[in-house]
Design a protein that fits this description.
This protein is an alpha/beta fold. The protein is built from 8 helices and 10 strands. A 4-stranded mixed beta sheet has the order 4-2-5-10.
Length: 281
């Protein structure tokens, strides 16, 4: 049994949220450069040039990539041979978020009551935490500051089995079409298929952070990703919604077994930044 202090978790969470907000991932930066070459609209090219330059400035000066520094989402894989000591697990994560958002001068966007008082917690906590127990003696942390320009466009449909592949394509493409310029395109589209309504939404969110260029390992789903991406880019939304042939940079589909009576399909929309950072303890 390996002991891990909760203070180590706190420190790593802090590190990851600062990194995610300041530094764009290299695979995404390469995809933006590729999109710049492929975009056929002069205005779309100009938008992509500004996005790329913004990302370079953010990393160089260690300032936020975007003014919306996101709701803190944390995916955790805890090895079953790990013994957490010296504190509360969730409190450690939230303390790491608090310290990152304070010391990094990151915008604090969380309200404690979503409907009535809507009072800012002033700490950007509580974080949204997803925890899985896995084999081994390590803890894997994935920090994801999720902006709400994209999150607000996310949705779910409970399709019938007879809707099949076409139903999934139509639903995802229509979701992106309705979103238009709101999620700051070009976007990354995470799609969760199967499970239950709630589980589909979770895997759709996590699918966003798959490395750009890595298709689903199942060739049929990989072909579906490609087909949906082509249809999205034919919508003409373009960078910043100003027109063009690059509306999305990637479509990532993950799937789970589900009940014979339905096909849950969740779409989680993310802006061109798709901020995230991973760490291991």
């Amino acid at each position: 049994m390996r002991k891990v202090k909760t203070s180590q978790i706190k420190d790593k969470v802090k590190e990851l949220f600062l990194k995610a907000n300041f530094y764009i991932n290299s695979d995404l930066m390469q995809q933006l450069e590729k999109a710049l070459k492929e975009e056929n609209s002069p205005l779309g090219k100009h938008v992509l040039q500004m996005i790329i330059e913004n990302n370079k400035i953010a990393s160089r000066e260690e300032v936020p990539i975007c003014q919306d520094t996101g709701l803190a989402v944390v995916f955790v894989e805890v090895g079953q041979e790990v013994h957490l000591v010296d504190g509360d697990f969730a409190e450690a994560i939230n303390q790491g978020v608090k310290e990152a958002y304070k010391e990094g001068y990151l915008r604090k966007s969380v309200v404690d009551d979503p409907v009535f008082e809507r009072k800012n917690t002033k700490t950007n906590t509580p974080a949204i935490i997803y925890t899985n127990i896995v084999p081994g003696d390590k803890i894997k942390l994935l920090a994801m500051p999720k902006g709400f320009g994209g999150e607000n466009m996310s949705t779910i449909a409970m399709l019938k089995p007879t809707d099949g592949k076409k139903g999934i394509i139509d639903f995802v493409v229509e979701t992106v079409k309705k979103a238009g310029p709101n999620p700051c395109p070009p976007t990354i589209i995470g799609v969760g298929v199967g499970g239950t309504a709630d589980k589909a939404m979770v895997i759709a969110k996590k699918a966003i952070i798959r490395k750009i260029g890595q298709s689903n390992k199942n060739s049929k789903y990989a072909a579906l990703e490609k087909e949906i991406l082509t249809k999205i880019n034919n919508l003409g939304i373009g960078p910043a919604g100003l027109g063009g042939n690059i509306s999305s940079l990637a479509v990532h589909i993950d799937y789970l077994p589900t009940h014979i009576a339905g096909i849950p399909v969740a779409v989680n929309v993310c802006c061109h930044a798709a901020r995230h950072a991973e760490g291991l303890l």
